[in-house]
Design goal:
With 360 residues, the protein is an alpha/beta fold. The chain has 16 helices and 9 strands. It has a 5-stranded mixed beta sheet, with helices on both faces. It has a two-stranded parallel sheet with strand order 6-7. Helix 5 links the parallel strand 4 and strand 5. The longest helix has 27 residues. The chain starts with a helix and ends with a helix.
Length: 360
């Protein structure tokens, strides 16, 4: 089977392919590399350095959940030596783009080796921290997330087909099940929110670039080592910032459920009216329960996100008396001059913002 045919298999098979690499690129040329979104692009740039020519499909401030590939994106993928993706069904549009571009280069899945958080674990977290009698029943519908992997593989036609394919199903479920139906596969794809996972990302990126361009492998691994050292130093910094938060002030309310790995790493609880994808629908009942929880637990601050419409969070703050604690960056970096212009800056900014708001 040729590389091209392997890359055009089903979405589940695509996610399982960590490395499918062509013959090495010419040593005198820069390796042409495409990364799918800005956070991953920054990691690739750190490791690839001057030896790669990098294109990032979803740039700073862009929402990869709702991204629609352009002809320019297809051209970039078609010409790439290496395509680096997050995996865990984060890029639901990618298989269609790969097919449209007739991509026959090397595919690197950055999350290979990550211990992914399942939807069941998200449900358990809600069960552990929720005092509302009906909340567990509402979140039992989250098991339906598994059904959406195939839907997202339909790429840009998803919205057009949504009504026909899911109309009957939506009629049979409540609002919460509707929003669950928009999410990705069986696992939380936001694995980059853990610094430990970022080391795994770096390892996979360095290995993929080195296999595609062995003449510069020593440079890729040297850059990887420097990057990992910075990740580990930041980990100690964030531990110090968040470790001292009192137990009763460790709940973070934000727009969509993108911080599960961050919560797990720092013993925090994240609550969000929206699911794992910004495409998720928000039910009135979930919002009402969240407002009640904020009041009962005395949660003093809620946090807006850079990629979402924050009117709902503002409404929740107004109704509960909570303040807006700041802006968190979940799925995209800021512009270079902003507070989250790099991956490391993003994690530091998020941790500082949370510690400042909840520790005061």
């Amino acid at each position: 089977m040729t590389t091209r045919r392997l890359l055009l298999t089903s979405a589940s098979a695509l996610a399982a392919l960590a490395f499918i690499l062509p013959s090495p690129a010419r040593a005198e040329d820069q390796l042409s590399v495409v990364a799918t979104f800005s956070i991953l692009g920054d990691m690739v740039a750190r490791i690839g350095g001057d030896h790669i020519a990098l294109t990032t499909l979803v740039g700073p401030g862009g929402d990869a959940h709702v991204y629609q590939p352009t002809p320019q994106a297809a051209r970039a993928v078609a010409e790439a030596d290496v395509l680096i993706m997050n995996g865990l069904e984060f890029e639901g549009w990618l298989e269609r783009l790969v097919e449209a571009a007739s991509f026959d280069g090397g595919l690197v899945e950055a999350t290979v080796g990550v211990e992914a958080i399942s939807f069941e674990e998200h449900d358990d977290d809600h069960d552990d921290h929720d005092d509302h009698d009906d909340h567990d029943d509402e979140h039992a519908g989250d098991d339906d997330h598994d059904d959406h992997g195939d839907d997202h593989a339909e790429g840009k036609d998803h919205d057009d087909d949504h009504g026909d394919e899911h109309g009957e199903e939506h009629a049979e479920h409540d609002d919460h099940d509707d929003h669950a139906g928009h999410d990705h596969g069986a696992f939380d794809p936001h694995a980059w929110q853990s610094l430990d996972n970022a080391v795994i990302y770096a390892n996979n990126i360095a290995a993929g670039l080195s296999l595609a361009d062995p003449d510069n492998a020593s440079n890729y691994y040297s850059n990887r080592a420097a990057f990992v050292a910075e990740i580990e130093a930041l980990g100690a910094e964030v531990d110090a910032m968040l470790g001292g938060l009192p137990e009763e002030r460790r709940t973070v309310v934000t727009s969509h459920d993108a911080f599960g790995y961050f919560a797990q790493a720092y013993n925090l609880t994240f609550e969000a009216p929206q699911g794992l994808s910004t495409e998720s629908e928000v039910s009135a009942k979930d919002v009402a329960e969240l407002i009640e929880q904020i009041r009962e637990e005395g949660i003093s601050a809620v946090f807006v996100e850079s990629i979402t419409d924050n009117r709902l969070l503002q409404q929740i703050a107004n109704e509960t008396g909570a303040t807006i604690g700041g802006t968190l960056y979940s799925d995209a970096l800021s512009e270079a001059e902003g507070p989250a212009g790099t991956y490391l800056d993003m994690v530091r900014h998020n941790a500082t913002t949370i510690a400042s708001a909840l520790g005061s």
